[in-house]
Amino acid sequence: MIAIVDYNMGNLASVQNAFLKLGKDTVVESDPHKFKAYEKLVLPGVGAFGDAMEHLRERNMIEPIKEFAASGKPMLGICLGMQLLFQSSEEFGEHEGLGLIKGKVQRFNESKFHKHLKVPHMGWNRMFTKEHPLFEGLDDLHYLYFVHTYHVVCDDTNDIIGETEYGYRFTSAVAHENIMGIQPHPEKSHANGLKILQNFIKL
């Protein structure tokens, strides 16, 4: 069974409905003591990094998430949930993350943009992927749907499995052993997004 972490940050129903379209039941789980009982864990998220970490802290979820990650069972962070996997973020000040992947979260550097580009990065964009089980069966162009102002920067480039161009090339998907993350919203990315979730189910 797959658990979707409920910490009051994001539209959990849309993620759950995407799994339902694939015929997979999931549990929206708000009890951190139950995380270890699940086969896989999904950490979604929409909003500000600092607020998200505070919500996780208030609900005593930080250590149970870290324990699940250490168990070796598959874990997927989506959008803000992917960013939370990292050590820190500069969004509205300096905030400590879960520290499951080495690196940080920083705002898009608009000084590197052409004049017509703005933040947030919103809409359909292509992901340039490395070979990874999450991406099996995606179409040749790998277009996915993004909405974000901040992006991750990995300390170890071996953790990067997907990149996207917006002003410059940034990391849009990561994998470190059993811990994975994608910046785009699979639940809004039609066939390609559903394929990523289907591949996660198979892991």
Keywords:
alpha/beta; Rossmann fold; 14 strands; single chain; 4-stranded mixed sheet
Explain this structure to me?
- The protein is of the alpha/beta class.
- It has a single domain, classed as Class I glutamine amidotransferase (GATase) domain (Rossmann fold).
- It contains five helices and 14 strands.
- The strands form three sheets. Strands 2-1-3-4-14-13-12-9 form an eight-stranded mixed beta sheet. Strands 6-5-7-11 form a four-stranded mixed beta sheet.
- It is globular and about 50 Å long.
- 43% of the residues are buried.
- The model has no long low-confidence stretch (mean pLDDT 96).
Provide a brief overview of the structure.
By secondary structure, the chain is an alpha/beta fold. The chain has 5 helices and 14 strands. It has a single domain (2-202), classed as Rossmann fold (3-Layer(aba) Sandwich), CATH 3.40.50.880.
CATH architecture: 3-Layer(aba) Sandwich
Mean pLDDT: 96
Tally of separate helices: 5
Q: Class by helix and strand content?
A: alpha/beta
Q: Main β-sheet, in a few words?
A: 8 strands, mixed
The unreliable regions are none
